Amino acid sequence: MNQDVFGAGDGRANEQVPVEKLGYEEARDELVETVKLLELGQMGLDDSLALWERGEALARRCEEHLDGAKAKVEAALARGAADGADGGDAAE
């Protein structure tokens, strides 16, 4: 494939960070770039499949981060509600 074409190559950096070590923003940004490369459709099948698999892993990583954040927010809201119910009686 012509290396002067955007999206040429396998879409993988020489030293790619393992997906499980990426923070949310890093995984999200790489996923956005992955989608852009795949949408160009300029890579061969094997390269596209490898990039697709990386994209799937990135999407799962983003979901893990979001699920964790959601759980933290729900726990904080539950604590706040419990504190409010306990604290409300003491103020009266």
Automatic annotation (TrEMBL):
<comment type="similarity">
    <text>Belongs to the XseB family.</text>
</comment>
<protein>
    <recommendedName>
        <fullName>Exodeoxyribonuclease 7 small subunit</fullName>
        <ecNumber>3.1.11.6</ecNumber>
    </recommendedName>
</protein>
<keyword id="KW-0963">Cytoplasm</keyword>
<keyword id="KW-0540">Nuclease</keyword>
<comment type="function">
    <text>Bidirectionally degrades single-stranded DNA into large acid-insoluble oligonucleotides, which are then degraded further into small acid-soluble oligonucleotides.</text>
</comment>
<comment type="subunit">
    <text>Heterooligomer composed of large and small subunits.</text>
</comment>
<dbReference type="Pfam" id="PF02609">
    <property type="entry name" value="Exonuc_VII_S"/>
</dbReference>
<dbReference type="InterPro" id="IPR003761">
    <property type="entry name" value="Exonuc_VII_S"/>
</dbReference>
<dbReference type="GO" id="GO:0008855">
    <property type="term" value="F:exodeoxyribonuclease VII activity"/>
</dbReference>
<dbReference type="InterPro" id="IPR037004">
    <property type="entry name" value="Exonuc_VII_ssu_sf"/>
</dbReference>
<keyword id="KW-0269">Exonuclease</keyword>
<keyword id="KW-0378">Hydrolase</keyword>
